[in-house]
Amino acid sequence: MRQAGRYLPEYRELRRKHSLLELCHKPDLAAQVTLQPVERLRVDAAILFADILLPFEPLGLGLTFAAVEGPQITRPIREAAQVLDLPPVDPATDLGYVLEAVRLVVRALPAHVPLIGFAGAPFTLASYAIEGGGTRDFMLTKRFMYAEPRAWHELMRRLAELVGNYLAAQARAGARALQLFDSWVGCLSPADYATYVFPHSQRALQLAAAAGVPVIHFGTGTATFLEDFARAGGDVIGVDWRIPLDVAWERLGADSKRAIQGNLDPVALLAPRPELERRVRDILARAAGRPGHIFNLGHGVLPETPVDAVQAVVDWVHGG
């Protein structure tokens, strides 16, 4: 989860010279950033360095990054009519620089280290597009969802097609696994997830799965509708720290062949070392040696995280 980033000194060095969008737009730089944590930490897989909002540029929504506020959408969707005006997006051409970064990383990685491609899920993208940036209450998103259900479903349909095809294109470029990233979906009630999100996530995951590589379905705050979240699709279901790993596995079904990813709280990496180790070993104990556990954080590495804490976690997991 967000392997590359501000916690790494080599990444901060690049950011002194280049903006975030420059790092994303230049395949050689994106590849370099993707490889940094693999080279330093010896993790088992690389995660493509890109931003989930890059599709907003060919969609004509505008995308900038403010130093403190984060991503800003310059032409947010606030009216139903705007949805019908969104242009079609062809990942092979409109996001070709991302696919070139995939190809560069695959060539540079050792054969035993797979690259995971990723894209934002329809709900998380729709929320950014409507809110115009980050939010705590999702007021604009939910108001649009409730007041303009036809336009909402059309927006979600278009985003599902876009990200599903985008993920499949990353697999064709060489990614050996894919992740649909729904970090904001936990703001919804179970009923709203089922009505307004489930069919569109399912469609995106179907399109991604057609590429023939494993697909990870990642979300945060999904404990209240975990069964529906898993039913939407994915070979691997990501869970965060708000639910114990063994409880999540039980709820997915004892006979489920699906793997599970998670679920260390990223803030635990800032804890004293004995407490961090206790939490890591608790997760491993809950996995109980079952096949199909991908040890991971429940969300991304925080910028304040000491590199040696991340390294310690990798070493503990590898050492059992």
Task: Provide structural commentary.
The chain is 49% helix and 12% strand. The chain is α/β, with parallel strands linked by helices and 320 residues long. It has a single domain, classed as Alpha-Beta Barrel (TIM Barrel). The strands form 2 sheets. A 7-stranded parallel beta sheet has the order 1-4-5-6-7-8-9. Helix 3 (27-41) packs parallel to helix 6 (96-108), helix 8 crosses helix 9 and helix 9 (149-173) runs parallel beside helix 10 (190-209). The model has no long low-confidence stretch (mean pLDDT 95).
Question: In brief, what are we looking at here?
Answer:
The chain is α/β, with parallel strands linked by helices.
Task: Please tag this protein with its features.
320 residues; alpha/beta; TIM Barrel; 7-stranded parallel beta sheet; two-stranded antiparallel ribbon; 14 helices; 9 strands
Helix and strand topology:
Elements: H1 9-17, H2 20-25, H3 27-41, E1 46-47, E2 64-66, E3 70-72, H4 80-84, H5 91-94, H6 96-108, E4 115-120, H7 122-131, H8 139-147, H9 149-173, E5 177-182, H10 190-209, E6 215-219, H11 226-231, E7 236-238, H12 245-252, E8 259-264, H13 273-287, E9 293-297, H14 307-319
Parallel strand pairs: 1-4, 4-5, 5-6, 6-7, 7-8, 8-9
Antiparallel strand pairs: 2-3
Largest sheet: 7 strands, parallel
Counting structural domains, the number is 1
CATH topology, by name, is TIM Barrel
SSE order, one letter for each helix or strand: HHHEEEHHHEHHHEHEHEHEHEH
Rg result: 19 Å
Q: Strand tally, please? A: 9
The N- to C-terminal Cα distance equals: 20 Å
Shape: globular
**Beta-strand residue fraction:** 5-15%
Q: What is the CATH class?
A: Alpha Beta
Structural class label = alpha/beta
Q: What would CATH call the architecture?
A: Alpha-Beta Barrel
Task: Supply the number of helical segments.
Answer: 14
Strand order of the largest sheet: 1-4-5-6-7-8-9
**Helix coverage percent:** 40-55%
Regions with pLDDT < 50 over 5+ consecutive residues?
Answer: none
Overall residue-averaged pLDDT value: 95
